[in-house]
Amino acid sequence: MLENKVIVVTGAANGIGKSIAELFRAEKAHVIGLDIERVDIEGVEYRQCDVSNFQEVERVFSSISEDHGAIHALINNAGISEFKSIWEVDEQEWDRVLDTNLKSVFICSREAARYMTEDVRSIVNMASTRAFMSEPNTETYSASKGGIYALTHSLAATLSERGIRVNAIAPGWIHTGSEELRKIDHEQHWSGRVGKGDDIARACLFLTDPRNSFITGECIKIDGGMTHKMIYEH
Ligand code: NAI
Q1: Is 228 exposed, middle or buried (0-12, 13-18, 19+ CB in 10 A)?
Q2: Phi then psi for 73, rounded to 5 degrees?
Q3: Hey, where are the domains in the chain?
Q4: How far is the C-alpha of 50 from the C-alpha of 56, rounded, in Å?
Q5: Which of 15-28 are b and which e, b meaning 16 or more Cβ less than 10 Å from the residue's Cβ?
Q6: DSSP state, 200?
Q7: pLDDT digit string (tens) for 31-65?
Q8: CA distance 142 to 83
Q9: 6-228 CATH pick, 3.40.50.720, 3.20.20.60, 3.40.50.12160, 3.40.50.1970
Q10: How many Cα atoms occupy the beta-carbon half-sphere of 173 within 13 Å?
Q11: For residue 77, how far is its CA from the centre of ligand 1 (angstroms)?
Q12: Which of 73, 82, 124 has its CA nearest to residue 100?
């Protein structure tokens, strides 16, 4: 179904983005990975791009369209998760997190939408369960992810006239590193395990599938049940 469709994945060099790029590649899509780091996945085209920079993003999407014609889907996955005490967050730090995580979703969506002139026409944004719940000292990241939640339904409204669907995924804890997890890390989830990149990649595929065209403006939490779990101490 996605054979030879042009799918752009941001932040495809590592972690969840890498899993997404690999899964769409396995579906025979033509996957283009945008990242500041080199994307090293067989069969995936790499284009270097700082997704927080308007000019770089405008240029990269224009060149993708020149080379491939229409863009069919965009997965806005790139992001940084760094947490600092509010007393240490300066203006530069605030701008860095908001620009990388939130501004990027706006500009990449707009530029991809210009070239979404054929079927599929889907955008998926990576939010976080931190858009809905918090630990202390997470203000910049949480604000960026809450912004993505709102931007998703706003873009879904605006881009509906072009037949473009816009959805979000709010992942919980997704283990992408090589460090050993503890038993308690898994057992505290109703799912009995911490999430993996593939859990998110499959949801991206589901939301991109044109058969699911009744879903737009939605945000799906994928977190092993953690945002529904009551944590009162008895
Ligand atoms: P990661 O750090 O493993 O990968 C992020 C990728 O984005 C990297 O390849 C990095 O080079 C790229 N990137 C960073 N800044 C960029 C920029 N300015 N331009 C282009 N590329 C840039 O992160 P991970 O864990 O795979 O997360 C992916 C997304 O999922 C992020 O948006 C993150 O906030 C979100 N998320 C992750 C969760 C987790 O538990 N891993 C939980 C909830 C959300």
Answers
A1: exposed
A2: -155, 155
A3: 6-228
A4: 7
A5: bbbbbbbbbbbebe
A6: H
A7: 999 999 999 999 999 999 999 999 999 999 999 99
A8: 10
A9: 3.40.50.720
A10: 17
A11: 6
A12: 82
Count how many residues are written for the chain.
234
Q: Which of 9, 14, 51, 132 to mutate to test the pocket of ligand 1 (most atoms within 8 A of CB)?
A: 14
User: Which residues are 167's β-sheet partners?
Assistant: 124
Indicate which atom in ligand 1 lies nearest the CA of residue 171: 43
Give the three-class secondary structure for 129: helix
The span from the CA of 59 to the CA of 48, in Å, is 11
What confidence category does residue 154 fall into, taking pLDDT thresholds of 50, 70 and 90?
A: very high
**What tens digit of pLDDT does each residue of 170-188 get?**
999 999 999 999 999 999 9
What does pTM read for this prediction?
A: 0.99
16 DSSP assignment? H
Query: What span, in angstroms and rounded, lies between the C-alpha atoms of 140 and 225?
Result: 24
SS3 label, residue 232: coil
Q: How confident is the model at residue 9 (pLDDT cuts 50, 70, 90)?
A: very high
Which tokens in the block code for residue 126?
Answer: 């990576």
The Cα 94–Cα 141 span in angstroms is 9
- Please give the structure tokens belonging to residue 12: 């495809």
Q: What spacing in Å lies between the alpha carbon of 184 and ligand 1's midpoint? A: 25
